[in-house]
Each structure stands twice: as C-alpha cells, then as structure tokens.
C-alpha cells in the first residue's frame, strides 16, 4: 500500500464529517467491511456512528479527531481518507489525566499495511505532547479477540473492567448476539 512515513495526519473539521462517517461505517459494518479484518459484521448490524456523533467529537473542547490520508498531488482533489481516530482528554484524580482512544478506523482495503499501527503511535505521541498524560485507554468489545490481541502486541493490557453493551440504543448498532460487552484496555505512555 504505502509507507507509514508518507501518511498525512490532520485535525478533522466540520467539512470532514461525511467522509469520516463513511470511513468508520465501511471499516466495521456491512459487507464492505469484510474486505478488512476489523469487521464487526458478524456481531452487529446497523450503524457504527452518525454525523451528529462525529460532529460532537470534532467540536469537543477536550478532544480532537485525527484524519489520515496520503499526500495529494499538486492541483488534485483532496486524497480520500485512509484512517481516523478520536482522542479525548479525561480527568484522572491520580495525575494529569488520561487520553481516551476511540473512533479508530482504517479503510478495509488499506488494512494490513501498517497504517493502523502508525495511527495508534501518532495518537499516543499526540496525547503525551498535547495533554502530558501518562496513559491511554480504550474500550473494545470482548468478542473481538483478534483486535484485543493486536492492541496487546502494541503494549495495551486488559484490565478485566467490563461494561455492558448498550442494548436497545440503536446509535451503537443492532446486536446479533446477546453476550456483547466492552473491556477497558490501558497502556502507560512513558516519555
């Protein structure tokens, strides 16, 4: 695909909302998501996100949404988004806070080329630089053992802290099975 060094990282704006929604949906829902390994099509139907949720994330004064694309050719239209993620600074009584990592998506046809690892590393550096936080955390559906293993290979640990999936709230999708739950993963962000 492309070398991670060629990726262009930017902070999302309101103009990016439609492309972000399309990217996240394509990476997790429906048949198109099966082109990559991050699909949740066997676990959930319905939406993964919506324009309002993405707009809220972009407008959050304690967070930012990162877009990832290839460099555009001079005079060409903007390059399509390859990946994205959301970072949110959350308070922590034990220190300078924690960075929450979410809305992570890589285009299904670009998965497996190191883009996801580059985005995660960029997010960790950004959280340390911007907020001086000492750790990053996220929530992952426990049934996603392959995804959890991917994060573990990058230094994240399972906490055993679980929260139920929000059954009945269609904003998060339509579960295809009754046993979905989230587990919190964390990673220290040493200097």
UniProtKB/TrEMBL annotation:
**Keyword Transferase in annotation:** yes
Which SUPFAM superfamilies did the record assign? Acyl-CoA N-acyltransferases (Nat)
Entries under CDD domains matching the protein: NAT_SF
Keyword Transferase listed? The answer is yes
GO molecular function of the protein, one example?
acyltransferase activity, transferring groups other than amino-acyl groups
Sorted alphabetically, which keywords does the UniProt record give? Answer: Acyltransferase, Transferase
N-acetyltransferase domain: residues covered: 7-181
The organism sits in which domain of life?
A: Bacteria
- Name the InterPro entries on file: Acyl_CoA_acyltransferase, Bact_Acetyltransf, GNAT_dom
* Record-linked Pfam families: Acetyltransf_1
Q: What is the name listed in the Swiss-Prot or TrEMBL entry for this protein?
A: Acetyltransferase
């Amino acid at each position: 695909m492309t070398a991670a060094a060629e990726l262009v990282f930017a902070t999302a704006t309101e103009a990016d909302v439609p492309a972000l929604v399309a990217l996240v949906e394509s990476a997790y829902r429906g048949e198109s998501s099966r082109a990559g390994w991050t699909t949740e099509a066997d676990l959930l139907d319905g939406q993964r996100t919506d324009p309002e949720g993405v707009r809220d994330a972009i407008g959050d004064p304690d967070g930012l949404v990162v877009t990832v694309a290839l460099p555009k050719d001079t005079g060409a239209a903007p390059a399509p988004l390859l990946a994205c993620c959301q970072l949110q600074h959350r308070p922590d009584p034990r220190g300078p806070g924690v960075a929450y990592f979410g809305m992570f998506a890589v285009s299904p046809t670009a998965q497996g080329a190191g883009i996801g690892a580059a985005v995660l590393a960029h997010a960790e550096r950004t959280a340390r630089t911007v907020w001086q936080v000492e750790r990053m955390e996220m929530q992952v559906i426990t049934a996603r053992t392959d995804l959890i293993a991917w994060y573990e290979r990058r230094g994240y640990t399972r906490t055993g802290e679980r929260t139920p999936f929000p059954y009945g709230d269609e904003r998060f999708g339509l579960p295809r099975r009754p046993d979905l739950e989230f587990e919190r993963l964390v990673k220290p962000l040493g200097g």
